[in-house]
Design goal:
By secondary structure, this protein is α/β, with parallel strands linked by helices. The protein is about 40% helix and about 15% strand. The protein folds into 2 domains: about 15-250, Type I PLP-dependent aspartate aminotransferase-like (Major domain) (Aspartate Aminotransferase, domain 2, 3-Layer(aba) Sandwich); about 255-335, Alpha-Beta Complex (Aspartate Aminotransferase, domain 1), CATH 3.90.1150.10. Strand 9 and strand 10 form a beta hairpin. The longest helix is centred in the last third of the chain and has 19 residues, at about 255-270. It is globular. It starts with 15 loop residues before the first helix and ends with a helix.
């Protein structure tokens, strides 16, 4: 039977804290719907505390939908979003931003290990408007990145400042924001950087499927719930999407579990017999491995993916154990 311990942080079960909060929400009995309940209000307050920000918060069921709705909010159909060429919105969402945004384009930018090269912003930001291409109207950044690297606040500011100087919007994809925070990124700095819309990942952090959309720019809140409803992202029992955030934020489990995932990645990196291709800063390890050895690893019972740059990706989660890391390391030594 194949083991999926390191295939993705999506393959892990939900944390005890998230499940306990769901059970507590269910035990509260009857309540109002569509996110107007006390559970959703409590979860939103905890998100605001996490970020030290006066922002509006909504809970949705899917990271893909959350990102796409945010980008559609910031861009008109004839405009484009600047993002890393290997970002999730550019490569793994089946055109959802363009679907939700009725034609908006993702304009991919280069940069080592998933971080946008600041110099690559100059040309698209300076290009004159003309009717034959979609000009940029927003920037999307990801922390931690698709390659497990982490932006610090100063590096993000260097990317965001020229975009904001043009009057454009900024979206931060935080599918693995907890891992970035556990690696040292200051979540309270986000409100000072010019981010308009933030997605806080719950699913990859160990919750049941749920993501939080944080609206730092409150002018975007008007009719945002109508956008969510039209997109199938205003669940009637919204409290069950909000509740896991209560369980994970009340006692710091959100960052604590991410720190464990990061530590397991470092442990695996230390034992890795294959060349590591990107800095191990969060919970992912990307290695050079030929197809023969990847097939041998699969045959040994461990399922992992080949990633966008040709590397093989190993992801650690809150549920990754030291024993599992040691077992995988032994299997890797056996095929190297």
């Amino acid at each position: 039977m194949a083991r999926y311990d390191f295939a993705s942080d999506n393959t892990a079960p939900a944390t005890p804290e998230a499940m306990a909060a769901l059970i507590a929400a269910n035990g509260a009995g009857f309540t109002s719907g569509y996110g107007s309940d006390t559970v959703s209000a409590r979860a939103a307050d905890l998100v605001r505390t996490l970020l030290d920000a006066d922002a509006d918060v909504r809970f949705v069921t899917s990271g893909t939908a959350a990102n796409a709705i945010c980008l559609a909010t910031l861009c008109r159909p004839f405009e484009a979003v600047l993002a890393h060429e290997h970002s999730h919105v550019a490569t793994d969402e089946t055109g959802a931003p363009g679907f939700f945004g009725h034609g908006l384009r993702i304009a991919g930018l280069p940069g080592a290990s998933g971080r946008i090269d600041p110099a690559s912003l100059a040309a698209p930001l300076a290009a004159p408007d003309q009717p034959h291409w979609q000009p940029p109207a927003a920037l999307s950044v990801t922390n931690s990145t698709e390659y497990g690297t982490v932006y610090d606040a100063a590096t993000l500011k260097a990317l965001i400042d020229p975009v904001k100087a043009m009057g454009y919007g900024v979206h931060l994809d935080g599918a693995r924001l907890a891992n970035a925070a556990a690696a040292g990124f200051d979540l309270k700095a986000i409100r000072t950087l010019g981010v308009d819309l933030l997605v806080i990942g719950g699913t990859k952090a160990g919750m049941t499927p749920t993501e939080a959309i944080v609206l730092f720019d409150k002018s975007l809140t008007r009719r945002f719930d109508a956008r969510l409803k039209q997109s199938g992202q205003l669940p009637s029992k919204g409290r069950f999407y909000a509740a896991p955030f209560i369980g994970m934020l009340e006692d710091g489990a959100y960052i604590r579990h991410a720190a464990h995932a990061n530590a397991m990645a470092k442990k695996l990196a230390a034992a890795m017999p294959f060349p590591i291709l990107h800095p191990v800063e969060a919970n992912g390890i990307f290695v050079q491995m030929d197809e023969e050895r990847l097939s041998a690893l699969h045959a040994a019972g461990w399922f992992v993916y080949r990633f966008l740059d040709g590397s093989v990706r190993f992801m650690c989660s809150w549920a990754t154990t030291e024993a599992a890391v040691e077992e995988l390391a032994e299997a890797l030594r056996g095929i190297v």
